[in-house]
Amino acid sequence: MDRIRAPALSYQRKKQKGMHSPNLSCSYEIKFNKLVIFIMQRKMGKTRRTFLMELARRKGFRVESELSDSVTHIVAENSSHLEVLDWLRGQTVGDSSKFELLDISWFTACMEAGRPVDLEMKYRLTEQDQSPPLNIPESEVPSFIASKVSQYSCERKTTLNNYNKKFTDAFEIMAENYEFKENELFCLEFLRAASVLKFLPFPITRMKDIQGLPCMGDRVRDVIEEIIEEGESSRIKEVLNDERYKSFKQFTSVFGVGVKTSEKWYRAGLRTLEEVKADKTLKLSKMQKAGLLYYEDLVSCVSEAEADAVSLIVKNTVCTFLPDALVTITGGFRRGKKIGHDIDFLITNPGPGEDDELLHKVVDLLKKQQFGRDLRRYATHERKMILDNHALYDRRKRIFLRAGSEEEIFAHLGLDYVEPWERNA
Predict the structure, then answer these.
(1) How far apart are CA 224 and CA 193, in angstroms?
(2) Could you give the 3-state DSSP secondary structure of residue 392?
(3) The whole model's pTM is what?
(4) What is the CATH number of the domain that holds 120?
């Protein structure tokens, strides 16, 4: 399974005109009843459309597989107002003016917020949106961009406004697949191509648009061409359906598990995380045990508000030891992302004092506060008592309990005493 398969010299593409996405039964709770979304498959492809529909349903949105009179919002990708209207004229619906015609960026914003966002003008498809971006004549866009784009990302200013997400998503899947096969060369080829397309201030709609751009190798160009012509890539579908890729995708999502461990598990016949958890013969590292134990928490998304709240906790803890220290959020949230999977910090001390043990002290203090929080929670829910920094109060007896030491507090709560070095919760 480790060998690299040579790319096919030729392949046959099948047109999928007239095909509709299957009706998916909605088994999720509908939270937002006032709007009904229809996602156009045109220029998007069946696979991506199905994924987006299911994502929206999981978030509580009502999404229809077929266009009907109940639809209120139509979402399109890389399509102008005129193109959507032309498409609507061929459908068996009445007045098209009853629909809100929206760009995919509105849908993405809704998914990030977990709720419908306001219909700002930047999300609407209007008659004024027909000219090429930056007011550059369409014939000049490729040459203008190609002459400016550097092969180095450090020489490009790339915002979160990605006009070519359907291409870059595909590239990142290909890169991940090659990473799982430990083919660094092909992995970097697709990652660098994705980085270039994220920089472009316009959506790619034809092969001429990438002419002269750096990092556009043959493998990359084949994927772009197929997506332009078919709306999706057969290569991407093949990867997503590959058993090895799906297993590695699950395994590497566990904290502490990399490609080497995934390969070991796969060779042992394991295919899912459920099988990994059920296999008692596996020797897991401490980190991997924690990764499996807290899997759901670790893979869940972190919002910008949560990141700010955690940042405040870290700042207060750090300043306990170094009052002049600066704690700065880095990583994705510093780059403007609204949602991430972790929070990165940079701690600096502008003052003359240094503390080589700062991180250890901060972590130890946070561990004690976690442990202390659980102790108070246990007192409240299991013993009907109130424990704070000042006293222990028994709500049933309505008295304060005398305690001259930690051991006495544990005894009042009916717990065996836990030594400080045993509180690394």
Answers:
(1) 11
(2) strand
(3) 0.52
(4) 3.40.50.10190
User: What distance in Å separates the CA atoms of residue 320 and residue 362, rounded to the nearest whole number?
Assistant: 9
Tell me the backbone φ, ψ of residue 177, rounded to 5 degrees: -65, -40
CATH number at residue 178: 1.10.150.110
pLDDT digits (tens, 9 = 90+) for 261-274: 999 999 999 999 99
Strand segments, DSSP code E, in 205-360 are 302-303, 326-330, 339-340, 344-348
Distance CA 396, CA 379 (A): 12
Nearest to 172 by CA among 249, 97, 104: 249
Q: Taking the CB of residue 180, how many other CB atoms lie within 10 A of it?
A: 24
Instruction: For residue 267, report the phi and psi dihedrals to the nearest 5 degrees.
Output: -65, -25
Beta bridge partners of 62: 36
Residues 220 and 139 in one domain: yes
Q: Which residues pair with 76 in a beta bridge?
A: 103
Per-10-residue mean pLDDT for the chain, 425 residues long? 33 35 57 93 81 90 92 89 85 80 91 89 74 44 61 79 91 95 93 92 87 90 89 92 96 93 95 94 90 83 78 82 81 77 79 70 72 79 81 87 85 83 59
Q: How many domains does the chain contain in total?
A: 5
The sign of the CA dihedral 347, 349, 354, 355 is negative
Last residue of a domain, one of 338, 355, 372: 355
Range of the domain at 323: 302-355
* Whether 182 contacts 2, CB under 8 Å: yes
Structural domain contains residue 13? no
User: Residues near 257 by Cβ (< 8 Å), separated by ≥ 6?
Assistant: 251, 288, 291
Q: CATH number for the domain including 403?
A: 3.30.210.10
Same domain, 126 and 163: no
Last residue of a domain, one of 103, 130, 157: 130
Tell whether 326 and 312 lie within a shared domain: yes
Give the number of other CB atoms < 10 A from CB of residue 270. 20
pLDDT by residue (tens digit) across 78-95? 788 888 888 888 887 777
* Conformational region of residue 12, where left means phi above 0, alpha means psi within -120 to 50, and beta covers everything else: beta
Whichever domain contains 291, its CATH number is: 1.10.150.20
C-alpha distances (whole Å) from 296 to each of 235, 293, 299, 367 are 30, 8, 5, 21
CA dihedral 16, 18, 19, 23 (to 10 degrees): 160
